[in-house]
Structures are given as structure tokens and as C-alpha cells.
Amino acid sequence: EKDYEYKQREKEREEKEREEQGNENDRQLLSQNTKRKSASKPKKQNKPKSKKQKNKKITPSFTMYKNWPSKGGIQFSNVCVRYREGLQRVLDHVDIHIKGGSKVGIVGRTGSGKSTILLTLLRLVEAERNPKDEENEQILDNNQQSSSSSQQYKPSYILIDGRDIQRDMGVTTLRSNIATTPQDPTLFEGSLRFNLDPMSKREEKDLWVALQQVGMYDYVKSLPSGLDSNVATDGANLSVGLNTSLIFLSRALLKKCKIILMDEATASVDFETDTKIQKVTRECFQDCTVITVAHRLSTIADADMVVVMDQGRVVECGKPKDLLFKTGSHLQFMALSVGEKHLQQLQQISLEKEHKIIENPYDL
């Protein structure tokens, strides 16, 4: 009996020692983890002055780009693009400087690279990154001067209001700040309201204002269901009064972007709708940068600048008036291929634009 009591006490003592040792090990492990975590955390140099500052979260896509782009200036520098490695370049060392708020037309033969410029701007295809670009970026980041050997090097980049669209942001931030009107606009299957404002960010009165601006207010108002009218995916159930391109223009107005891209938006519409689209573009996007890939030269005859593309290169760039009156220019040759009368009409449009600028520079 005494032996049993002795063994029981020994067993309890051993269990107690193991428990104390285990607790000590846990404390040491916890202490080590705490030190490791605190060492990995960056030291706070400036303590927040208020609780509001302390709880403030930094969201680069919101904080850094809240008011971006504010002007809509675009710069292509030494931009090269291939659709796949090993294929010929579709853009070959392209340099274009577009002033914020200007209206730019891009023209050229089929396959010249016109639409690829817009695809690259949206990063639907990526521009090539020269191996020296990373070295140059490190030099700029470290505020160092480039060596004499790198002075001959021309960096490749696309900037919007000074920000590199490949280096400084993701595609979501980029594309959410650009409105597009594609060559073959495809609508969502659903209501007209949903097609105008997919994210439901605007009030109903804003939708009606946008429809008024593109000349569709009366037509939509006459529909039995109005904004809740059903729209087929390809817009097959829409009448002439509700053109898909005009819906996209309404969406662009509601999006309130500083940059509007139009890829031959008037190529497949009748003259009346074409005229309406051009009128909306001139009147409603005065403060926006509008880049139009044009099928009809009359579409861009009153632009601020025309870019002529050929085999992936910029072969000509300037004011429409200057290029249309310049003997032997690419733009003049394109106009003459339609006919002498067509060239004269385009020249007249470009002259009227110049006179309008002189008379009232704010009425464009």
C-alpha cells in the first residue's frame, strides 16, 4: 500500500515537472516568434497624430490615381509590338505625342497598325520591353546619371499624364479610365439601362441627359418600357433610332473619362448616323482626348492632328490642313485616290476648322 502511494506521488511529481517544462518551452517559443515578427516589421518613423490617420489604409489604385488622368496627355516613345514572338512587328519604333484634350485621327491602309495603337494603349497587346529599360528604370529610381554608353539608348514607354501604363499600374486601373467605341460594338443582353450603366453608378436623370446629348432621348422615351427596354446581345432588336455606336457614346459620356478611343466607329453606319456621331464627339468631348481610327477621311479632316501609318510606322504626322495642302504628302495621296473633288472637300473642311479656331478658340 505504501509502495502504491509512493509510486502515485512520483507519477504526479513527474507530470507536474513535464507540465512546467512544457510551459517554459512555450514561453520561449512565443518570445522567439514575437521577436521574429517585430524584426520583420518596418519601424514606424512618424507616429500617426490621430486615430483617423492611424486607421487610414493606403490603396495605390485609389490614392495614387484618384484624379488620374486629369488632362489626357499621351506619349508613345519607341514603341514596338509583335502579336507573337517570331512574327513581324505590327508597330515598329512608334513615336507619337498627343496633347491633352486634342482630337487625333489615325489613318492608313489595312494592316498599317492603326488599330494596334489603340490595343496597345489598352494593353490588350503588350508593347515590347527593351532589356535596357529595366537598367534605365533603376538608374532613374536611384537618381543616378546614365553612363555615356546608355546616352545613345532611347527608352520605350507609353505615358498617360506622365505615368507609365506598363510600369506604374495594372490593367484594371488603366482600362477603367479609358472609354472605348469599338469597330463592332457588342451590347450586353439585358435592359438598355444596364447597357448604359453596367455598374449602376449613375442616377436615372444622368442616363436621360446622356441620351439627350446623343440624340436618342425622344426615341427611348417613346418606348413602352423606356430605359428598361430589353436589348439583344448583338443589338438585333434595335431599330435605326437606337444605334449601338450611339449607345457606346452615351456610355462614354456617363463614364466621364478623359480619354476616348474610337476604332472606325463610323465605318459601318449610314451618313446621317456618322454625322450625328461626329457632332456628339465635337460637342460633348471638348475637354477630352479623342483618338479616332478613321475609315473615312472626312471623319478626321477637322481633327487637331492626323497620324498616318504605313507598315507599322508613323510616316506622317501634323495638322490636317498642312498635310492636305502639302504636295506629295501621304494624306493628300490618300485623298486623291478617291478623287480630286474629295481632296478639295477635305481641304475646305480643314480650312473651316482653322478659321473656327481663330474666331473662337473655345467653340470647337
TrEMBL record:
Residues 74-336 form the ABC transporter domain. Residues 1-27 have a biased composition (Basic and acidic residues). One of its GO terms (molecular function) is ATP hydrolysis activity. It holds the Pfam family ABC_tran. GO terms for cellular component: membrane. Residues 34-57 have a biased composition (Basic residues). Residues 1-64, 130-152 are annotated as: Disordered. PROSITE patterns: ABC_TRANSPORTER_2 (PS50893). Transmembrane segments: none annotated. This is Putative Multidrug resistance-associated protein 1. The lineage of its organism: Eukaryota, Metamonada, Preaxostyla, Oxymonadida, Streblomastigidae.
